[in-house]
Amino acid sequence: MPANLSTLAVLLVVVLAATVADAQPPGDAKGQKSKALDEDKQILREIREAYKAPFEVHEDVLKELRRSYKEPSEKREASMFRDLRRLYVLSPEREMAILQEIRRAYELQSTEQEERLFHEIQKSQPLPKGAVPESVQTEQAWKLFRKLDLDGNEILSPDEMPDALRGERRRWDSNRDGFINPDEYRAYYQGRLRLFSEEVAAGRIDLGLKRGGPMVSVIPAEDDEDPRPTVYRAGKLPKGLPPWFEEFDMDKDGQVALFEWRKTGNSLKDFAAIDRDNDGLLTPDEALRFVAQYSVAAEQTPPGSEDKKAKRKK
Fold this sequence. Notes:
Elements: H1 3-23, H2 29-68, H3 74-84, E1 88-89, H4 92-108, H5 111-121, E2 125-126, H6 134-148, H7 163-167, H8 169-172, H9 182-201, H10 243-248, E3 256-257, H11 258-263, H12 268-274, E4 281-282, H13 284-293, H14 305-313
Antiparallel strand pairs: 1-2, 3-4
Helix pairs in contact: 2-3, 2-6, 2-9, 4-5, 6-9
């Protein structure tokens, strides 16, 4: 290659390299990209935790309560309420009523008092399925903001913003100063959380859950089917219910509440497998769906019963 062409090629390489460098925001471009991915990953993680809450909260609270029998403390009580807020909307009055039952449990340390406690807990209003509590939204938005705020000046410059936020900056920059402050970022976070939640609920994002995630009904609805749920009463229950349903419905209100289920000695895990809407109540429709979906054997025994029999034989 002639010397003048070789020199020209080198100059072109240098110019191109400089152009690429100028196009990158300050800092490590790869690191900036990973932060954007981390943001979305964290949001999906919170949604996943919300879907898992109905299967975990009661068991976690019970474990913490029993640990408290030996060494009760305000820290342990705060932990129990933190778990409960994953699943319920708790007013100050509700929290006080639950706290009284918790402290009564410290004194009595009995299964009966534990049942009274969970009966009191279930009087609380449950969060919608898959809903991330408001307190968690605020906490996580602030954590992500601080992670993105590389220079620690409590505003995000365009260079610090993840790609999604940078592309919608005008929408979320309410004071039109060209930057994103913590309040603006929180609004953006909640908007993105709603977007991902809708995608998850529609089945377009798979959270990888073994249970509790959005499911397609195993009983397809007819075109002219009345969408209103059927309300059943004891003595007027549908045919095909497994025998254990009426046995476990101790107050004969046509449904099996969690506190009734616990009295039978079956696990919360089995209860959650049948409780499709995670409201703490097993309806006849849910029992029928479970029987249809899993096995004919379930008509005779509730989930886990065979395991319990096997343990007794051992």
